[in-house]
Amino acid sequence: MEWKVAELLHQSGLCRKYNGYLYIIECIKFINVDSRILDCLCKELYVDVGKAVGADYRCVERNMRYAINFLYKKGAFEKEPLLSIFQGQPVPPSNKTF
Q1: 88: which residues sit within 8 A by CB, 6+ positions away?
Q2: d(Cα 78, Cα 71) in Å, to the nearest integer?
Q3: Distance between CA atoms of 35 and 84, rounded to whole angstroms?
Q4: Most C-beta atoms within 10 A of its C-beta, which of 3, 28, 31, 95?
């Protein structure tokens, strides 16, 4: 599962040098274990990811937002079929929506 997400992000143009890349993968791993964690992004998910990677939860949120905005500006949501559900939105999707 992790490698599929990594491959999708890489094909979309987001490389490993962005911190948000790692954080998105970690978030998906946590969500796979317990999808109810999506209801508490700031209080649980970002904190848990921050602990797993040794970062503050605010850094996790900010870097994920940056990575999503980067993909949006690059046009990845139009090019990549799995991300096309966000196509045509006037603003980038939120972290929770992504």
Answers
A1: none
A2: 10
A3: 22
A4: 95
